[in-house]
Amino acid sequence: MAIGFTEFTRLGNALDWYQVHIFIEFKWPSKEFMHFNFDFNAVQILWTLTFAVHLVLLVVLLGRDRMRRFPWFTASIVLVALRLISTRLLFGRLPQLTMSATFIVMADLTALIGLMVVVEMARRAFAGVARRTWWLWTGVLLAVGATVLAQWGPWPTWKSLAVDNRMAALGMMQLVSQKGLLLVQVLNIALGVLVVFFGRRFGAGWRSHVQQIVVGLSTASIAQIAEQAIFQAIIHNATPHTRPEYLHLVDLREKLFNANSAVYVAVVIWWIACLWIDEPAATPAAEEAHLITHAPESDPISVSESLAAPKL
Fold first, then answer.
1. R_g of the chain, CA atoms, integer Å
2. At what angle do helices 166-198 and 96-125 cross, to 10 degrees?
3. How many CA atoms lie within 13 A of 135 on its CB side?
4. What is the mean pLDDT of the chain?
5. How many domains does the chain contain in total?
6. What is the per-residue pLDDT for 162?
7. Cα–chain center distance at 210
8. Do residues 104 and 170 lie in contact, with contact meaning Cβ atoms separated by under 8 Å?
9. C-beta separation of 61 from 67 below 8 A
C-alpha cells in the first residue's frame, strides 16, 4: 500500500505513534494533567509507576553490577527513563516544531539502541554457536523482520521521499523510527522463541539473566504489536460519523494503551526481581558444551582428548 508522504505523516500522527520503547507507548499529556492535583487518572498512575520501576531497575543494574554484562540493555533503560521525564518537562515549554524534532530524534535513538540490545542478547545467549550457524539464523531473523515491515502499515511512495525541507526531514526521521521500532519488536519476539527452545543448550537456560531479559522483551513486544494490530483493525472497519462515535474510538484507544502500559510495567518488575538474584552456577552439561564449541578448530585432537579425559 503506497500513499503520499504527507498523508503517511498525518496517519502516523493520528494513530499516536510516538513510542517510548521497542516494546511501550505514551501519549502526550494534556494541559490539565500538568497542574498539581490529587485527581489522578489511569494514564498518570501508569506513567508514575513506569518511571518509578525504571529508576528501581537502574539501581539494580548498577548496584548488582549487571551493567557491565548488559551495557546496551542498560543504555536502553536509561533512554526510556529520559524520554519519560522529557514528556513531562518539555511539553508546552518548547515550540511545537522543536519539541517534535527532539522526540523524533530520541525515537530514532531508541530504535538504534533496540537493535543493539537484540544483538547483545543473541551473542550472550548463543556464544558457543558456530559462525556459519550464527549467520544463517541472523539471515532468517532479518528475513522475517523484513517481511513484517513490508506487509505492516502504509509506506510512502518513492517520489514523496525527497528531503528538501525541514518538515520533510522530520517526516523521514519519523518513518525510520516507526519502522525501526517495529523491526526491533519482531526481532525481540523471534529471538525470544529461539532462546526459550535452544538457549539451554548453550548455557542460557530459564534461570539465566539472558533468557529472563529476552522473555521480558518478547512479552512487551507481543503486547505492543497486539495493541497496534487491534487498533488498526478497529479504525479500518469503523467510520465515526458523530462526535460520540469518535469519542468512543478515542476511549477504546486509551484502554488499549493502558493495557499495554500495564504489561510493560509488569515486565520491568520481572526484570527487577530476576536481575536482583544471582544466576545459578553453570551445569556440567553447559560447561562441556562450552568446552566443545570453544575448542580451536585447527586442533581436533584437543577436542577428543578433552572429551576422553576422566572426570575427577
1. 22
2. 20
3. 2
4. 75
5. 1
6. 65
7. 15
8. yes
9. yes
Closest CA to 221 of 183, 178, 194: 183
Tell whether the torsion through CA atoms of 5, 8, 13 and 19 is positive or negative. negative
Its domain, for residue 228, covers 2-32+41-280
Which triple of cell numbers denotes residue 218? 518478547
Report yes or no on 295 lying in a domain.
no
CA distance 21 to 145: 18
Residue 291 located in a structural domain: no
Q: How confident is the model at residue 310 (pLDDT cuts 50, 70, 90)?
A: very low
What is the pairing mode between strands 24-25 and 155-156? unpaired
The reply to whether 221 falls in a domain is: yes
**What's the N-to-C CA distance of the chain in angstroms?**
65
Mean pLDDT of 268-282: 87
- Specify if 309 maps to a domain: no
- CA 145 to chain CA centroid, Å, is 14
Strand 155-156 relative to strand 2-3, pairing: parallel
**pLDDT confidence of residue 158:** 67
Can you tell me the mean pLDDT for 52-77? 93
Of residues 191 and 167, the one with the higher pLDDT is 191
From 103-112, 237-246, 290-299, the region with the lowest mean pLDDT: 290-299
Are the C-beta atoms of 184 and 121 separated by less than 8 Å? no
pLDDT-based confidence at 148, cuts 50/70/90? confident
Q: What is the dihedral of CA 26, 29, 34, 36, to 10 degrees?
A: -60
Q: What is the mean pLDDT of residues 168-181?
A: 84
Specify which of 94-103, 163-172, 184-193 reaches the highest per-range mean pLDDT: 184-193
